[in-house]
Structure formats: C-alpha cells, structure tokens
Amino acid sequence: MEELVGLILTAGELLLTCGAEMSRVEETIERMGSAAGFVQVESYATPTGLFVSLHDPAGRVYTRVKRIRGGQSNIAVIAEVNALSRAFSAGEISADQVRQALERLRQEGVPESLARQLIGGGGALAFAVMMGGTWLEGLVAGVVGTVVLMVVSRMERRFPRVIQAAVGAIVAAFLVATVGPYFQLNVNVTILGAVMVLAPGMVITTAIRDLLGGELVSGLSRSAEALVIAVAIATGVAVVLSLGGA
Amino acid sequence: MLVQIAMGFLAALTFAYIFRVPPRQSVRCGFVGGLGWAVYLSGQGRFGEVGAVFLAATGVAVLSEVLARRHHEPVIVFLTPGIIPLVPGSKAYLTMLSFVQQDYTQGVVLLVTTVFLAGAIAAGIIITSSIFRNFSRTKHNRR
Predict the structure, then answer these.
(1) Sign of torsion, CA B78 B63 B35 A230?
(2) Nearest-5° angle of CA B73, CA A22, CA B143?
(3) CA distances (Å), origin B116, targets A137, A206, A209, B51
(4) Quick one: closest CA in A to B24, which residue?
C-alpha cells in the first residue's frame, strides 16, 4: 500500500510540474487511487503543492504533502501520464510497469533539442507576419526568436520564469533595435513577433480552463503568473528601447 | 488571406513544439490553428473583433474535441497550440508596454480589449467542452 501511495503521488507531481489543469491532476489521482484498491481518495492540487489522502479498506489513512517546484510546459508528458493512469485503472498494466514508466518520464524530463528552438523561431516569424509585418520583418523576428529560445533554455531550472522572460525580452529588443535601422524595419512589429515565443500562452489557456472549472485558487494564481510574465516582457523591451533613445 | 491562414497554421505548429506536444500530433495542431485564424479573419469584418474571436475559439474547441476523441489524446494536446493564434498574448504585451511607457490612455484601451478577447476565448472553449462532456458521457465515462 505504501508503495502505491508513492506511485500516485509521483504521477500527480509529474502532471503538475508539466503544467496540467487541476481537474486533470485530481481526476488522475482519484482514478489511480480507486484502481489501486483505496476505498476513499481525497486530493487537493495547487500549482505549487499537492495534498493527497488515501483511505485503505483496513481503515488506515495515508496522507502525503508534496511541494511542487518549477517545471515547464510539457504536453507530451501530460498525455503520457494520462494514458498510463487510464491503462492502470483499466487493469491493462501493473503497478510495477507504471512505476517504471513514470520513473523514465521523470528522468528523461525534457530533452532540450536544437530542433525545438529552430522550429520555435518559426512561431516568431508567423506572429510577426500575422500582426502585419513584412516577410523581412518576419525573417528577422524568426532568427531573433530562435536566439531568445536558446538563451532562455540555458537559464531554465536555474532562474524563475519571470527572470527568464525579462532577459529574453531584453535580448530580443536589443537585437532587433541593433539590426533594425540597417533594413528599415518596423521595430515594434518585429519585437512583438520575437517576444511571442516568451508569451505565457499555455499559462493563460490553463488559467482560463481552471477558473471556468471552478478551480479558483489555481486559476487566480496562474492568471497572476501570466500577468507578471507579461509585465516582465514589456519591461525588458521598454528598458532597452528607452536606453536606445527611441 | 491564404498567406495569413498559412501563418496561423505555422504559429500553431511551432507552438506545438514550444509546448512539447507529442511530435506525431503537431501537424494536426497546425490545422486546428489554421482553422481558428481563418474563422477569425473571415468573421472580423461582420462580427467585430470579439465576436470573431468567440466564433474562432468555438471552432478550435470543436475540432480539438473531435480530434482528441478520434486519436485518444487529452483535449489540451490540440487545444493549447490551436488556440495560440487567437490568444491575445500580443495585446497583453502591448498593454503592458503602453503602461511602462506611460501612455496610460492607450494602455487602458488595450487592457479592456484584452480582457474582452480573453473572455470571448473562454466562452468559446467552455460552451463547447460542456456540450461535448454532456453529450458523450454515456459513451465513455471519461473527461
């Protein structure tokens, strides 16, 4: 029983660090808990902490608290854990298999690949053009966006997301403001495209889903996170532009 | 117009990589995003910005729910990257930039627009997902 408790807690922790919605975390824990033979499962998830209480048929209660730190958006891991918990509750795989799979997911963590950063730059290009930029401005935004993603990925796990966003925005604004005059670029649109790779899009979407699902604590705290990141990006850009005398 | 739709596709596809969606699904995410941006652009003139975003978000949410059921993935796999072209991330950034640069009037205008756009997206998503949830409860007892 003790091992099953740890297993359930690990699944919840993985989901939370990868940015899943609260309802998904709690559903997964309840599903795995009842499949593991607990008669009553209570869980309370927030973006920074996880509380689980499991009652076994003999009347013993296992209660655990798990502090959740850091983490980065990773939908692949969320989908994987989701599939594992379903297979486990359907009885298709054993607890041991689940444990191994979770351990593997946790250790692999996030393979940081150059491909992700290059493709991410394409997102900056797309946004610059969608906001009415020319192809040249899109191209510059794309290259700068890739550089920003590279810089930010070096800082991951060592600095809070707010600092990452501010530094990324400073880098983006500096590069665009330096290159801009040579190509007669619209600096505003180009910077806008480049910093979109930093924008907290997934945090905003999850915050909306949490809030509308009645998860007030995590919905509000994620909204606050998104707001702070947006302020950090804007401040970073504004600092560079005003120092440049623009 | 076609170029713009292609850019919506590209934005969703690339953000699928940024959010680390399973790579086998990323092209489908691109199509979801392209659909959303196409609906937004064609509805913008007739229904205004907020109405167009609401319709587009509904379209994105419906397609995401359908794809999620067909391919046995959580809805967020398609929804999160697919909604990205519509999310007013750029508006949020411009709002903050206006405030930081002490252009408060422009900042308040942008802030109100951002809030309404976010509300339109939320409405589109929540209406669709609650309809789907009630509709498919009998079929599989999940999500």
Answers:
(1) negative
(2) 40
(3) 29, 17, 16, 10
(4) A76
SS3 B17: helix
- Residues in chain B closer than 8 A to A201 (CB atoms): 15, 19, 80, 83-84, 87, 89
Q: Which pLDDT belongs to residue A242?
A: 83
Q: How confident is the model at residue B33 (pLDDT cuts 50, 70, 90)?
A: very high
Q: How far is CA A66 from CA A10, A13, A36, in A?
A: 9, 7, 20
* Rounded distance between C-alpha atoms, residue B43 and residue A190, angstroms: 26
CB–CB of A164/A152 below 8 Å? yes
Q: Nearest CA to A137 among A148, A126, A149, A151?
A: A126
Long-range contacts at A76-79 (CB < 8 A, ≥ 24 apart): A76/B20, A76/B21, A76/B22, A77/A14, A77/A15, A77/A18, A77/A105, A77/B20, A78/A15, A78/A18, A78/A19, A78/A20, A78/A24, A78/B74, A78/B76, A79/B21, A79/B22, A79/B73, A79/B74, A79/B77
Residue with tokens 């109405």: B51
Mean pLDDT over B82-95 rounds to 85
Q: Determine the number of helices (DSSP H) and then strands (DSSP E) in chain B.
A: 5, 0
At residue A147, the pLDDT reads: 92
pLDDT at residue A109, as a whole number: 61
Chain A residues lying within 8 Å of B17, measured CB to CB? 115-116, 119-120
Residue ranges per structural domain of chain B? 2-135
CB contact under 8 Å between B17 and A115, yes or no, is yes
Residue B142 has pLDDT above 60, yes or no: no
**Measured over all CA atoms, what is the biggest interatomic distance in chain B, rounded to whole angstroms?**
55
- What pTM did the predictor assign? 0.83
pLDDT at A146: 92
Q: Which residues of chain A have pLDDT under 70?
A: 109-112, 245-246
Size of interface A-B (CB pairs under 8 A): 142
Greatest Cα pair distance, chain A, in angstroms, is: 75
- Shortest Cα distance, chain A CAs vs residue B21, angstroms: 5
Sign of CA dihedral A171, A173, A178, A182: positive
Which pLDDT score, from 0 to 100, does residue B141 have?
Answer: 46
pLDDT in tens, A160-215: 888 999 999 999 999 998 888 888 888 888 988 898 888 888 888 888 888 888 88
